[in-house]
Amino acid sequence: MTDEQTTMIDFGPTAQRVTALLRGVTDEQLSAPTPCGAYSVADLLDHFMGLALAMRHAAEKTTAVAGPAPGQGSADRLDPDWRQELPRRLDALAVAWREPSAWLGTTEAGGVTMPAQMMGIVALDELVIHGWDLARATGQPYDCDPRSVETIIEWLAAVPDEERPKELFGPMIPVPADAPRLDRAIALSGRDPGWRA
C-alpha cells in the first residue's frame, strides 16, 4: 500500500456507522455477550471509548494520553455518559486521521510504537471489526464502507496465522469463495461470520 493510498482512507463512514449502532443499544443489552471473546456489550463500549481517544492521539502524535491496551475494556469503567461522549470521540478520531500528517512517521498507542500508516490501519480494523461485534451482539444490521473493508482484508490476509497476536486475533476461519467481503474480513479476524447472540 502506498503513502498516497493510505492517507486517502477516510474513517468517517465507519465511525458514522458505529455511531448509528449506538442508538440501537438498550440498557438491557449491556450485559449481553459479543463475538469478541469474553466481552459483554458494556465491555466493548468501554473499549471503544478508550480506543477512540487513544487512536485520535496517535493520529495527532500527542501520546501523552495513554491509550488502552487490547483487551482492557471493562463494564465497570464504562462512562455513564457514553451515549453522548462516544459519538464525539468517534467523530474526533475520524477528523484526526483526515490530516495527511497523521499517516507520516511513527506514533504510539496503548504502549505500542509503530509506523503511523500501520497504526491507522490498526485503528480502522478496530472500528470495522468491533462495529460488527456490536451490531451482532445487539441484533442490528451492519454494512460497512467498501473501501474500509478492502483495506482490512488486504492487511489481515497478509499476516500469517503464526504471526498474529493471539490476544488480538483468533485463527482465520475458512469462508466460501463467494462470501460477502465483510464476511471475509470478519473471518480473517478470527470470528465466525455466522455468530448470533
Automatic annotation (TrEMBL):
<feature type="domain" description="Mycothiol-dependent maleylpyruvate isomerase metal-binding">
    <location>
        <begin position="15"/>
        <end position="135"/>
    </location>
</feature>
<dbReference type="GO" id="GO:0046872">
    <property type="term" value="F:metal ion binding"/>
</dbReference>
<dbReference type="Pfam" id="PF11716">
    <property type="entry name" value="MDMPI_N"/>
</dbReference>
<dbReference type="InterPro" id="IPR017520">
    <property type="entry name" value="CHP03086"/>
</dbReference>
<protein>
    <submittedName>
        <fullName>Uncharacterized protein (TIGR03086 family)</fullName>
    </submittedName>
</protein>
<dbReference type="InterPro" id="IPR017517">
    <property type="entry name" value="Maleyloyr_isom"/>
</dbReference>
<dbReference type="InterPro" id="IPR034660">
    <property type="entry name" value="DinB/YfiT-like"/>
</dbReference>
<dbReference type="InterPro" id="IPR024344">
    <property type="entry name" value="MDMPI_metal-binding"/>
</dbReference>
